[in-house]
Amino acid sequence: MVMGSHVSAPGAVKLKRNTEYYLDRVVVGQSSDGTDYHSEPRVVEMKDGRLLCVHQRAQLHDDNTTRIVYRTSADRGKTWSADTTLYDPASGYAGRNPGLCLDPTTGRIIVFAREYNSGTAQVDLVYMYSDDNAATWNSPTSIMGLFGAEPVAVPFGKGVETAQGLMQIFYASDKIWALFSTDNGQSWGGLVTIHDNQQASATFSESVPVRIDNNRVVLCVRDGDNPERFYFFRTTDGGATWAGVQFGTWTGQAINTPTPLTGIRHENDVYLSWGARSPDWNLYLVKASAEYFFQAPDDVIANATRVKLIKSEASGGGAASDAEFGYSDLAVLSGIQHTVLVTWYDTKDDATVTDTNVYAMSAPRVSA
């Protein structure tokens, strides 16, 4: 594996190990041999200081065995508990696409998921919450009706706190929405359509909010039709209204078929990460000024120095496909400066497409 290298781009960069907190690559969700597919992790630090990682577990990348599980860590990611199933629909269909939101006031943890029949279509859309650091959870509550006649609404990424309340993002092939909660995640509503484009040439998919402050959020959007570029939307009123920053932000061949762009603010900076799939096979990190990222997110992605965090196990030319790597997530750890925790999933070896692990590591300290 390759850690802590960087690729050329404007500006000098120095990389070093963080003396406050350092975590080499560890396995969060260990796949057993055979058919055991761990993917799409979301990670937060809970009110009690432990880490929570919510992710999918299945036999294959996309089948009706998929369920939502979670694990915890009491030593800041060095070791992880066995998984506990959070959502596995009694219908026998898949429980998939976790969205994760932490209410900073109460510590309530909210997990969104959809019930999905891989042979037909979406069945339901639900959320669950815990008020005791993931010890117990309430029963799933359906919010499918909030989206009207829309056949698909997929939760994604992590929710953020805004001036409008807690905000969670959802997407379909040609739409992006935000839902809000003004009671610390107990109930959800106030649907806002961020984008609605019926043209087949604009097929958006996974969308992740990067919170700058209570009013300002940048939404990073993956382009389902042209995966070498990202789109960005921006709000200055906590998510009530949105405007596109610049469409068609080309990331260039150095990125190659990226997985969703995720980000988080820490101190005065934002950390951004994505996985570049075949033929690049690297997990990337960018650190930039939070203020500048809000003003020019397209410039940050196109021109900022990209740190190569790690090389995918799928890079050896075996049977593993693009689907077996990526989907990074970031978490801030209380009391720790100059770094964030990074999680992602990857094949155990490049010859196996049905065995994937969830991994975690700390980002290297990046300074100009």
UniProtKB/TrEMBL annotation:
MF terms (GO), sorted A to Z: exo-alpha-sialidase activity
Record-annotated Sialidase domain positions: 49-246
Xref: Gene3D superfamilies: 2.120.10.10
Gene Ontology annotations of biological process type: ganglioside catabolic process; oligosaccharide catabolic process
Enzyme class: hydrolase
Pfam family, one: BNR_2
Source organism superkingdom: Bacteria
Reaction(s) this enzyme catalyzes, per UniProt: Hydrolysis of alpha-(2->3)-, alpha-(2->6)-, alpha-(2->8)- glycosidic linkages of terminal sialic acid residues in oligosaccharides, glycoproteins, glycolipids, colominic acid and synthetic substrates
InterPro entries the record matches: Sialidase, Sialidase_fam, Sialidase_sf
EC number assigned by the record: 3.2.1.18
Cellular component GO terms held in the UniProt record: cytoplasm; membrane
Family: Belongs to the glycosyl hydrolase 33 family.
PANTHER family given in the database record: EXO-ALPHA-SIALIDASE (PTHR10628:SF30), SIALIDASE (PTHR10628)
Protein name as catalogued: exo-alpha-sialidase
